[in-house]
Amino acid sequence: MMDVQSIRQDFPVYQKQPKLTYLDSAASSLKVKSVIDQVDHYYHTLGVNVHRGAYDLAYEATRLYEEARSTVASFIGAETDEIIFTRGTTSSLNMIAYAYREILKPGDEIITSELEHHSSLLPWMITAQKTGAILKYVPLSKEGRITIEGFRSILSLNTKVVALTHVSNVMGYLTPIEEITRLAHQQGAVVVLDAAQSVPHMSVNITNLAVDFLAFSGHKMFGPSGVGVLYGKKHLLNQLEPFEYGGEMADQVDLTQATWKEAPLRFEAGTPVISGAIGLAEAIRYIQKIGFKAIHEHTHELHQYTLKKLREIDGITVYNSTAENPVIAFNVDNIHPHDIATMLDQYQVSVRAGHHCAQLVTKFLGVNSTLRASFHIYNSKEDCDAFVHSIQAAKDFFQQF
Ligand code: 7TS
Hints:
This protein is of the alpha/beta class. The protein has helices spanning 4-8, 13-16, 33-45, 56-76, 89-99, 118-131, 148-154, 177-186, 206-209, 234-237, 274-290, 292-311, 337-346, 359-365, 381-399; strands at residues 21-22, 83-86, 109-112, 134-137, 159-165, 190-194, 213-217, 228-232, 250-253, 258-260, 316-318, 327-332, 349-350, 352-354, 370-374. Helix 9 links the parallel strand 6 (190-194) and strand 7 (213-217). Helix 4 (56-76) crosses helix 11 (274-290) and helix 5 packs parallel to helix 6. The mean pLDDT is 97.
């Protein structure tokens, strides 16, 4: 097992909240001290803009910002100019779906799934409405998974875009995206991958996945909120119309028209999230220092341990016991998930209740909402015990009525 006590030294929130049982990392991870320090360093020692000034501080800020881009690129096996800094996954996915309003024609097909987070679903739903394209859903397996057979059954020559989640934020299932991408490319479709939940937990490499676009957020991987990444294949990015117009993205401007720079600057109009990018690069260095193998072994053990303990309590329905990611979606019979979550908070156990911005998933499960517990490296077996104990206590409490 990982030395959780030593890991927790890296997460300052535990100094203020030593009794915290944080099981909501799928919503946002806790933040690492070295990330906070890097963000702080930028504001304390630089604080100036990037790409614009011809003075030392501006060169240094630009160097750190561009170095962050290279760190992200090598982290996912991409080229530096294929990395665009955005506000987060939501913004990255909206940018691509918006750009495809110029490309899609009536009758073109967009493949998505009922497992999507709203950030991956809604931008394409609206793009379909605006262009006359047809939104098609991969039929999920009984367990609720996206399968190759399901995908094959709706793939056609009209498929132009495949927009799928890599790992579901509710079910924690891993999509077999390599094979799906290979099939999609045979039909000439592009693949847009929502990697918000996979990048914080597993090695995600563009060379293997071969997807055309990919999005993730800093705040789910120990980095700052307000920064995220859009990866795109260079030749595709440079064919897309920019989503925003403004400073540093234009090449030549005259009275009636303008031309644009190439990616990534073409898509980074205005002052970017400089401190966020610098902080994200530090989060990546932190993850690399620990390694995905150790992260997986630790969180997998906690996940399996908790599932086993939950099975010992009557009246608990777990919806995703085979999930690859350390996420448990569950309900307690006859008790509203929000009541359970509120009760758990009395024990300083933080979980999420609701539809998790993925209403089609809860509909698929035939419920209105679920509870979700999700784990990361700072969690311990004591957290799992505290969680299970508080569930039992909540159940006992509500059963009195
Ligand atoms: N896609 C997935 C799969 C997600 O889990 C999330 C956030 C997003 C997209 C959006 O990311 P953002 O950084 O732009 O907000 N998921 C969650 C969640 O599960 N609970 O809170 C946020």
